[in-house]
Structures are given as C-alpha cells and as structure tokens.
Give the backbone structure.
Amino acid sequence: MIPTHTAPDAPRLLTGLIGSGIGKSLSPALHEAEGDAHGRRCLYRLMDLDVLGLTPDALPELLRAAQVTGFGGLNITHPCKQRVIRHLDELSPEARALGAVNTVVFREGRRIGHNTDGWGFAQGFRRGLPDAALTHAVQLGAGGAGAAVAHAALGLGVERLTLFDRDRERAQALAARLGAQFPGRRVEAGESLEAAMREADGLIHATPTGMAAHPGLPLPAAWLRPGQWVAEVVYVPLETELLRVARARGCATVHGGYMAVYQAARAFELFSGLRPDLGRMLAHFERLIAPPAGVAGA
C-alpha cells in the first residue's frame, strides 16, 4: 500500500518534466507516490511549453532556473529530447548512442543526460516475453521512441531487425546508425511489410496507432500468425486493438505499460538514488489508467 503522505521533516526531492502538451502526464503521480513509499517528500512539476507560451528555444532558461532553484533533475520529452543535448555537460552511453535525452540529472553543478526509454522497453520485454525468439523482428516506427526501442531490441539479442516508417529515409538513417553500433547484426529498412511479417518471429509497434486519437490497427490482422510475439509501445489504452487482435490470432503479447512505468522508475532512481519497487509502480500505474467505476469497459 502506498502511503498518502510523508513526515514533515522527510528529505525533499524536486523534479519535473519539460515538453509540449504534457498536461495529462502520469509522471507526477508515479514519481510522487514512489517518493512517499520511500518516506521521501517528492514534488514533480510539469513545465508545459504550450501552457507557458514558450518554444524549445526557452530550454536554456528553463534548465538554468531548475538548476539554481534546487531541482534534482528533469525529465525531457517532445519536442526537446534532441535539442537539450547541446545544453548538457555529459551524456550517458545510452543517451550518446541514441542521440536523445529523456532524463537530465543535476549533480555538483553539472548537467548529465540519460535516456531511460530503451531500458524501460528492455525490462518490460524480458518480463512479458521471456522466451521470445529473437532471430528476426519487424519494427513499425523509427521516430524518437522507435530509435530507443530498436536499440534496446538489438541489445536484447535480436539478430535481424527490419524497420518500417512512413518516412522511409528516417528508417534508412536509423538502420544505418544501428548497424554501425551493432556490427554483426542485420539492420535494414524494409521494402514489403507483408513479406517481412511472413518471416518474422515478432513485431515491435512504436507508432501512435492504437491511441485514442489514432484508433485502429497498424497492419492487417491477417499478417499476424500463431506463434509470433507482439510488443506494444502505446500504453493508453493499455489494451490496444493490436494486442487484442494479436492474442486472438495466437500471438504472445506485452503491453506498453511496462515501458512507460520502467522508464519512469529508472528516472526516479537516477534522481533520488533510491531503488524503486517496479511492481508497486506498475500496480499504481494500472490504477491510474483504469476507467472509473461504472464506466463502460471498467
């Protein structure tokens, strides 16, 4: 059970999130509740560029303001994950490899950039699909989240990764970058999704399709077959149409909630130095996104 308050004299931690359109972010609830569970008073503030009437050009000002007012760090999301790098003193190996930062830690006057997205995906994949065959995976989406997920998939041991994106040049560029980082693996921009799915062990989905604003399937259901696995990145709703159809067709699946929670857990650990309870954070996340009692689907 997560405590609802901490002692008045509990150690304090101030963190936050910079991005656009982040008003519905679950990060404040996740970070603050986990802080409570550790007896640590945590305040997580949203810095929504849209609400503040700012552009990403305000990043230097926001970073400096957070640093001098005692923030332990900041999460960074769209459209600032690449832009923030030029304002940092140091990058973790993961952030450097991905060319994107989603977590900035302030330590002794320095700004250190991390990327926890890939770690979050990998942890969720291991938990949800521990016995998945990794000879050949197909991935839909080569954007910011897609890059982190693809890097994580290769780190998990995927031998051949075929990338598809509406912007073929973006898929080609990501394939070239990952191929250089993982010599000996086959990373390619695919030509025919139908043909690739006939050969693949599984599918990684890293596009917005399936979200409330983008309903539907990212590929024809008939292209999924029994014995394949499907790893989803979308987490609202937790049960996407892709996951429902995939299970009905005999596929093993893992939902996007794991990645969402585990990347937040890793960021919490970087900010606080405390070891988060992943199971507790996942249970809290599931309560946060559950439909209210009496609502259809609850």
User: Anything to note?
Assistant: The two ends are 22 Å apart (CA to CA). The chain has two domains: 12-115+260-289, 118-255. The first strand starts at residue 12 and ends at 19. The chain has a mean pLDDT of 93.
